[in-house]
Amino acid sequence: MQKFLYFFSLIIVLTACVEKRDLSKNTVVVDLESYPDGLHLFNSNSGSSSFIFSYTQTGLVSMNSETEKFVPILIKELPKADATGLLYFMELNDKAKWDDGSLVTVDDLIFSWKVSLCPLTDNAHTRNFYRSVVDSVFKDKLNPKGLWVKVKAIHYNNMNVVSGVTLAQKNYWDPKGALNNLYFNNINSDDFKTNKDFDKWFNDFNSADNAYKPENLKGIGPYQITELANKSYVILTRKENWWGEGLNGEDYNNFPEKIIFKTTTDPGAGYLSLKREELDILKNRGGVWISKFNRLRRNDKFNENYESKYVGTNLYRYLGMNMRPDGIKYKPFFTDVKVRRAMAHLAPIDDMLEFLYYGEATRQASIVAPFNNEADTTLGFIPFDLDKANKLLDEAGWIDSDGDNVRDKTIGGEKVQFKFKLNYYSDPSLKEIALVLKESMKRAGIILVPNPLDFGTLFGNAYDHKFDAILAAWGGSVSYSDPTSVWGSKSWAEKGSNFIGFGDAESDSLIKASNTNLDPKEHLKAYRALQRKIYEEQPYIFFWSEKYVMACHKRFDNIRFYRARPNINVSGLQLNYK
Amino acid sequence: MISLLAFVISINSPTDPVENLVNASGSEAGMNAESSASEELRRQVRKKLGLDLPVFYFNVAAYADCDTLYKFQEKSHQENLSEFVRRYGNWDYIETYYHSVRKLAKRTSSMTLDSSKMTGFSSKTISNARNEMMLSSLSLLEINNPTYVQVKFDSITAQNKRYPFIIGIDTEVSEMISAYDAVLENKQNWKNYIPALQLNGALNQYHIWLFGNEARNRGGVVRGDFGKSYSDNEEVGTKMLKMFPYSFILVMLSIFLSYLISIPLGVYSAYKKGKLFDSVSSVIVFMLYSLPSFFVATLLLYRFANPDHLMWFPVGGVKDPSVFNSEWAWYSFANIKHQAPYFVLPLISFTYSSFSFTSRIMRGSMIDVLDQDYIRTARAKGLSEKKVVLKHALRNSLLPIITMFANVFPAAIGGSVILEYIFSFPGMGSGILVAITSIDIPMIVAVFTLTGVLTVTGYLVADILYVLVDPRISYKK
Question: What is the pLDDT of residue A473?
Fold first, then answer.
């Protein structure tokens, strides 16, 4: 027995020789929330893959993280619409080159659009969005660097869309010109016609090799993907002689020699990784990470080593109330605006924010985060007010007629108790919110039944309007988000993202005005009027826009955190380690 | 049989994979406000998943059932039509009714309102009326309860009468009501009691899943093609090949460690039966057994991977990308030296609870053997206790331990979900967790199938080992 114990002690001592990370190396290790769904140029669309692409791809335009405005990168100026508002022109600059040294051409752009729009590409999510906007793309007859994009309808976001295409090199991907005979009228047709050549080319193009083999993951950005380790990390290596090197502007920075994106699943392990200085950057973590992060921020050693901050996001959490239930299985609890406002008065949002989020979220009054330039900041927050809620519920006819401490109302001859189900994604942090709301509602004679569901069922029921109330969140970006899908009345009837049945002619006309007014002032006026209308109707109880924890090791200079993606200037970090 | 069971599980998934794939991938918070699934997108995804085909080579159903129900796009419509058939048994009439409702739904979604007849109505009323009409007709595609259907009919008819600006749907409404009346009047419930066999041929979901189909670019499970993962579009086989070695190594090391400690412990406890060592070791191993592994794992991390205490071992993963050299061969000393520390804490967390079970089995088995006559004979011959126990008794008491070995292979496939999550270990456990949370049916089915196959393989290996350990056992007739 003793021999065994000695043997094991020896093994443990031998294995307990962790190689310490060399902090003088110009390598940035970045925490990745989840492993990317592959790194296919066109077909991978998770948040993690987009984050990595921001260093391996360079777009036609880029959003300046500081000003939150678009700036041209591969084109001379931002795309401009002609007098009809349906044709956008852009001209490539003479700087951008592929890895083989050849210049980016208009043919590359047309090829990229063909692949983005073609039904044979495995990019169903983005393709359908692009197809709803872009009609065709063609060369300028006079300018060999000029390109026209024809859109289907005027929209405030068209400029972002026409300049948002992922760029791929035609000569690399299609050297034999297999897609030369693929035309936009066919691509955009409901009756798309394919042939064996197209099928073969797209089968090869969609293959997993183009999502996981580093040598196939070509881009025009400053870094090349050099290693993908199974579900653990992705390594990017700085390119030699990259075309943008030496140019001015944050988009041309490529200071770190290597960027390592590393996945940490457990918050406890992430916490220890930061303490051990194994991570240089922690970004976009919320929920259970907040309490760990707060503990770290009270640690002197951590503050000595890391710059840290909470950064606001455009992701807002809400409780949506079904305004148009079928009345048979789902009762009309929330059809009256008085009830919806009473519900808002019953939500102790400030308390939840303080105790569940440690104060690290920003209250939001309507559909746009308060720090966003387009938000109507004149809208006040609805305070927790039990008396006011009781009064509004009484006025709406919901009273406790039988003394059982639960409000009720006679609807269509039937006595209905105010007892509703709150559907939410089965997650511990959401459960806490649901339980707080349950307690609060109970004080006003309303029974809230928490109903945790899996993701598919939750949103399946929501799209089918089979719910009383839903606790969920919407993500967005710092640029304008088209409200049609979530707030357009037709979207409810067509089972779109307007689950709750909000909308009337007035809101629809405000959405239309907001979308089609290319004049920024007129656009903003309509958009803010829509925000006010939604605030007054209160179809959602708007909780807060969430904040994410961000930290960066101080061995780098030039640390900047942004609200806009990718939230931190990883490629702009300059090593200062001595 | 295993493949069939796995396939049955996959097609009976509680959620609609199409809905999961078209709406979002990843966390709830990641859902974008501007995304909205279109019917066209659903159709494309259905085809890609092979859901536009019949399920099996044949189906035994009721005579009343529709033989091409799988061709309907929406799962909710399929379910509703199925219930309709159970209720009335007359598919021909039900199909006519279904198409009439679809026609009305299509008409209402694109109808133009008569602006000359809008006087006296607020814009809100007009907008509401149009939307209510659209939703009522869409709802009819998903309900079959006569009371509910009647409520929707009344609503549509009432609105059509009340609002003169709604034009051009009279024909569709009356056709729909007539079609429904025909369903009620021509009930053929007897058809539900007559079984019918329907042959679907080889172009079915199961055949393609098992044997593949060139036109659909599928190799089939028999060729190791479990399809593509819903979560990242990677081949499931390739994904598993990347994850399996880590879990397998962890399980093998765990078994080795468990046997290395538990067998001597069990033998010595048996030898010292009823003595202090036996009692104390029992208490200790059962105490360990009672500790949950996630608790121990976290405790180990905070104690041995924490700069505030001891920083002996890494926090997680299986290598440090800033140090690891991808040119190292897997068997090279440099690679083993680099990766070994990453396995220590997961290994301890994975193994300690098995000490009680294995050592107690060994103890019980050894006590039985030590009571045998031939042991008494060996002692009578004057052999030393060490020789009696280790040479004469040990080999015969190992049989129950070999049975346990059969579980090694399925355990490697299953991995340890919680521990791999805590240690960010890229094995099968963490892969399964992601598959379950993202309802990645091909991955779940592949794990299920391989677990079944490897369980059988494990028992086969155990049977062979019996013969090697105990020469008295023979499988010859």
Answer: 93
B212, B218 Cβ separation under 8 angstroms? yes
How close does chain B come to A244, measured CA to CA in Å? 26
Task: Give the Cα separation of A497 and A487 in Å (integer).
Answer: 8
Q: What integer best gives the mean pLDDT of chain A?
A: 90
Q: Test B127 with A47 for CB contact under 8 angstroms.
A: no
> Which segments in chain A show pLDDT lower than 50?
none
Q: Quote the distance between the C-alpha of residue A555 and its chain's center.
A: 29
- Using a 10 angstrom Cβ sphere, with 0-12 exposed, 13-18 middle and 19 or more buried, the burial of residue B326 is exposed
pLDDT digits (tens, 9 = 90+) for B418-453: 899 899 898 888 888 888 877 788 888 888 888 888
Structure tokens at B20: 């999961």
Regarding beta strands A233-238 and A419-425, do their DSSP bridges make them parallel or antiparallel, or are they unpaired? unpaired
Which of B38, B124, B317 comes nearest A506 by C-beta?
A: B124
The reported pLDDT for the residue numbered B225 is 85
Give CA A577 to chain center in angstroms. 34
Please give the share of chain B, as a percent, with pLDDT higher than 90.
Answer: 25
Look at residue B38 and tell me whether its pLDDT is greater than 70. Answer: no
Q: Which B-chain residues 435-474 have CB contacts (< 8 A) with chain A?
A: 439
Instruction: Output the pLDDT for position B86.
Output: 92
Asked if A61 and A78 touch (Cβ cutoff 8 Å), the reply is yes
Query: Mean of the pLDDT values across residues B386-401?
Result: 85
Q: What is the distance in angstroms between the Cα of B120 and the nearest Cα belonging to chain A?
A: 15
Question: Quick one: closest CA in B to A121, which residue?
Answer: B44
Whether the predicted interface score ipTM is above 0.90: no
pLDDT of B406 > 80? The answer is: no
Nearest CA in chain A to B240: A230
Q: Check if B332 contacts A (Cβ < 8 Å).
A: no
Chain B residues whose beta carbon lies within 8 Å of the beta carbon of residue A266:
316, 421-424
Q: Beta-strand (E) ranges in A379-502?
A: 408-411, 414-417, 419-425, 447-453, 469-474
Nearest CB partner across the interface for B316, out of A128, A264, A493: A264
Strands A61-64 and A69-72: antiparallel
B69 touches chain A (CB under 8 A): no
For residue range A498-510, what is the model confidence (pLDDT) as tens digits?
999 998 889 999 9
Nearest to B301 among A29, A272, A506 (CB): A272
A25 has a chain B CB within 8 A of its CB: yes
Across the interface, whether the CB atoms of A475 and B33 are under 8 A apart is answered: yes
pLDDT at residue B32 in the model: 42
- Give the H/E segment covering residue A138: strand A134-139
- B291 touches B356 (CB < 8 A): no
Cβ B344 vs Cβ B297: under 8 Å: no
Rg from Cα positions in chain B: 33
Q: What is the pLDDT of residues A384-410, one digit of tens each?
A: 999 999 999 999 999 999 999 999 999
The verdict on a CB contact (< 8 Å) between A496 and B326 is: no
B430 Cβ under 8 Å from any chain A Cβ = yes
Q: Is the dihedral of CA A366, A371, A376, A377 positive or negative?
A: positive
Binding-face residues of B in 407-426 toward A, CB within 8 A: 421-424, 426
Half-sphere exposure for A123 (CA within 13 Å, toward CB): 29
The partner residue sitting opposite B33, judged by closest CB among A1, A124, A497, is A497
Helix residue ranges, H only, A494-519: 505-516
The predicted structure's pLDDT at residue B24: 44
CA A36-A498-A380 angle, 5° bins: 95
pLDDT band at residue B94 under the 50/70/90 scheme: very high
- Nearest-Cα residue of chain B relative to residue A316: B29
